[in-house]
Amino acid sequence: MLPLKSLLKGVNSLQVTRLWQNTGNVQCALLSQKRKTLNELAGVPPKPKKPLTPYFRFMKEFRPKVVAQNPNMKQIEIVKMVAKSWEKVDQATKDKLEGEYKKEREVFMKEMLAYESKLTPQQKEDLKMARQDRVEAREKRDMKKRNKDLNKPKRPASAFVMFAMEQRKSNPPSAKENLRDYMKKLGEKWSKLSDAEKKPFMEANVKANAQYKSDLESWEKLMMKEGNFDVIRNPIVLEPIKPKTSRGRHSE
């Protein structure tokens, strides 16, 4: 029996997530996790916290009052109201907040020097790699959004995911069943199917992939024509530009 990881190899994670969300199971909300800090990703001790700037000190104190007085106000409107209130704050108050910030910043700088001096070479390297991974992840997200904005064709579901989507309609998961257990159960069921039973899903996948390949080639040609070279994974070879012939005499 193939493991679930093998069955889902090359599958768009969004397809699986949508499959689960469509069941109406509230546990799909648990799929999202709080973003970890670089130090947590690298497995090193947390660094000292930066002091709040004068504006954020004001926001920390003033924002709860705005929320209490306007419980139904949207977040963006709250931010705008705080910003307008900050503009009206007298200079003496701003100077006081600035003084508090500078004092705490001096302490912070000393704590950072002490913190960095205690990091081992390996921990520094781990932090560097974690920072690089985060940059690459952000670039990947940006490219994914760019592809979506440019209407890039979506990769079709695998034969197994097509099977899982059909199973969800006739045999949805229970309210207490989580995604991993449900997909594992479907994986076991899929592995027990005969070749004849798998054939409709395999053929549908082959047909969908052929259409996807055709759509992708057309899309890449359009992107090349519009100058969006950065989104093309397999650049199309352009015809070489013919050199202009010289109008002058050629030396023999």
UniProtKB/TrEMBL annotation:
InterPro entries: ChromReg_NeuronalGeneExpr (IPR051965), HMG_box_dom (IPR009071), HMG_box_dom_sf (IPR036910). Residues 48-116, 153-220 bind DNA. One of its GO terms (biological process) is regulation of gene expression. GO terms for cellular component: nucleus. PROSITE patterns: HMG_BOX_2. SUPFAM superfamilies: HMG-box. Residues 48-116, 153-220 form the HMG box domain. The keyword Nucleus applies. Keywords: DNA-binding, Nucleus. One of its GO terms (molecular function) is DNA binding. This is CSON012768 protein. It comes from Culicoides sonorensis (Biting midge). The gene is CSON012768.
